[in-house]
Structures are given as C-alpha cells and as structure tokens.
Specification:
The protein is α/β, with parallel strands linked by helices. The protein has two domains: about 40 residues; about 200 residues, Aromatic compound dioxygenase (Protocatechuate 3,4-Dioxygenase, subunit A), CATH 2.60.130.10. Helix content is about 30%, strand content about 20%. The protein binds 3-methylcatechol (MBD) and fe (iii) ion (FE).
C-alpha cells in the first residue's frame, strides 16, 4: 500500500479531536498522554504499512491477554516493570538516597493479607513431595547499618513446580506467603521449601507475544520480599538463587548481581537457625 498520511493536517487535527483537545471536561494530563500514545501508534501504522488484518489480529491478541488477566505478566516481559525501577533508582541517586539492598520488581503474583508471625514463620502449608527444605533468614538494617527492630517482612515464592498459591488453584490460600515481624535485632527466620523457576504458561497470550519476539518466558528461582518500617522507605525486592540456568537470562529482567545468593547445604536445621550468613540456607 505504502501510503503516508501521518503528517497531513487532516490526521494531526483528527488526533487532537480523538484525544479530546477540543472538549472542556476530562483530564488534561490524560488527554496529553493519550494524544502522545495514539500519535506514536498511528505513526507506527503508517511507517510499517500495517495491514487491517495485522491490526485486527493485534486487537484479538489484546482481548485474549485481558481475558486471561495477563497484562501484568506481559508487562515485566516487555521490561516496563524494570524500567520503572530504573527510574526510581535514578531518582534515589539524584536525592542521594543510596546504599542498602537494591530494589527489584514486584511482579504480578503478590497477594495481600498473608498470615503474620513474629520473628519466625513456617511458610509451607501444603506438602511438596519434590520440595527440599529451606531455611531463610536475615537481618533488616537501615542504610546506616543499624538494625530495624519490628520491621515488617513480607515473603512470597512459588513451590517446587513453579506454582504460586491463589494462581495455582491446587494450593491452599497463602501457601508459601507470610508476613514476619522482625525481632528486637531486626532478624527474621523462615522455614520453607526451595522454589523452582517460573515459566509463562505455554501457548498463553503472553507466551505468543514473547515467541513472536523470539524470546522465552522463564524466570530463575527467586523469592519475593517487601520490607517496611515506619519512617523508612518501602523496599520491594527479590533474592535469586545462584546456579539457575536463567539467573542472568530472566524474561522479567529482575535479576541484580547483589541479589544473587548462594544457598548453603546443612544437615541439621538447628545449626542453620543459629549460624550462617544472611540468605537462604538449604
Ligand atoms: C513471577 O513469579 C514473577 O516474579 C514475575 C515478575 C513474572 C512472572 C512470574
Ligand atoms: Fe515471582
């Protein structure tokens, strides 16, 4: 076809009408952002001579994505979540709020309201026959190194099959999801099961889009954290278990060098509870 109409006054006026520029109501910011996004998409259609068939197949794919509630899954795959983190990192740098454990993405699988415990929690409610026991412990400190007694630590992770409770209906609600209130030294301990990696459901809309890009939808084994305390900046982060095939090839771009931890094999969990570096102990 090869028609180029984007730069014509008709199209430019049309875009302004579509974005509500000649209407009084609505949100000025919303109008400007919509106008920008529509302009970029219209221009893309023009530049790539996108056919009606291609356009309507994209509409179908977006409908399927929505029907499967997968925009939150595609989003990290397209790097938006990590991009938002990069922007927050840059803002922190600018404000000289540096140091401490780096943030990384929340992902789409957090569920609020997990059972709360003080200083220790056992996280596995369901038997996981292929799962290996994991001790997870650490200390919350502020950026000057002082312990944060009573810090709230929310932890969630998948089972040995890569399934998260609530999303994997075979699990009990809140399996492998806990809130732990740190002790007087800011420490917490959890007893759980080593998670495996996560893979985007085969054939699902998110998978179709990643395949079109020649990419996979795999994440390395990881454990999610929210850490918070009154007066301190909320931290959203994860730890990545070292040695996973996808540690440095995460479809969600969430791995950061400082968050990769080496598990330590112990025979007696009593030892693990008393000693050992922060991080997962297997
Ligand atoms: C996950 O477990 C996850 O953490 C992210 C970011 C995306 C998909 C599944
Ligand atoms: Fe996850």
């Amino acid at each position: 076809m090869n028609v180029k109409i984007f730069d014509t006054p008709e199209v430019q006026d049309f875009l302004k009408t579509v974005a509500g520029f000649d209407q009084k109501g609505g949100s000025e910011r919303g109008k400007k952002i919509t106008h920008r996004i529509l302009s970029d998409l219209y221009r893309t259609i023009d530049d790539f001579d996108i056919t009606a068939e291609e356009y309507w197949s994209a509409v179908s794919l977006l409908n399927a994505l929505g029907q499967a509630s997968q925009f939150g899954l595609l989003s990290p795959g397209l790097g938006f979540d990590h991009y938002m983190d990069m922007r927050m990192d840059a803002a922190d740098q600018e404000a000289k709020r540096t140091g401490g454990t780096p943030r990384t993405i929340e992902g789409p699988l957090y569920v609020a309201g997990a059972p709360e415990f003080e200083s220790f929690a056992r996280m596995d409610d369901d038997p996981d026959l292929d799962g290996e026991t994991m001790w997870l412990h650490g200390q919350v400190r502020d950026t000057t190194g002082n312990p944060v007694p009573g810090a709230k630590i929310e932890i969630w992770h998948c089972n040995s099959k890569g399934g998260y409770s609530f999303f994997d209906k075979s699990q009990s609600p809140y399996n492998l999801r806990r809130t732990i209130i740190a002790d007087a030294e800011g420490r917490y301990h959890a007893l759980s099961v080593i998670p495996s990696g996560y893979g985007v459901p085969e054939g699902a809309p998110t998978d179709q889009i990643l395949k079109m890009l020649g990419r996979h939808g795999e994440r390395p084994a990881h454990i999610h954290y929210f850490v918070s305390a009154p007066g301190l900046q909320h931290l959203t982060t994860q730890i990545n278990l070292a040695g996973d095939k996808y540690t440095y090839d995460d479809f969600a771009f969430a791995t950061r060098e400082e968050l990769v931890v080496e598990g330590k094999r112990v025979e007696e969990h009593v030892e693990a509870k008393q000693h050992g570096a922060d991080g997962p102990v297997t």
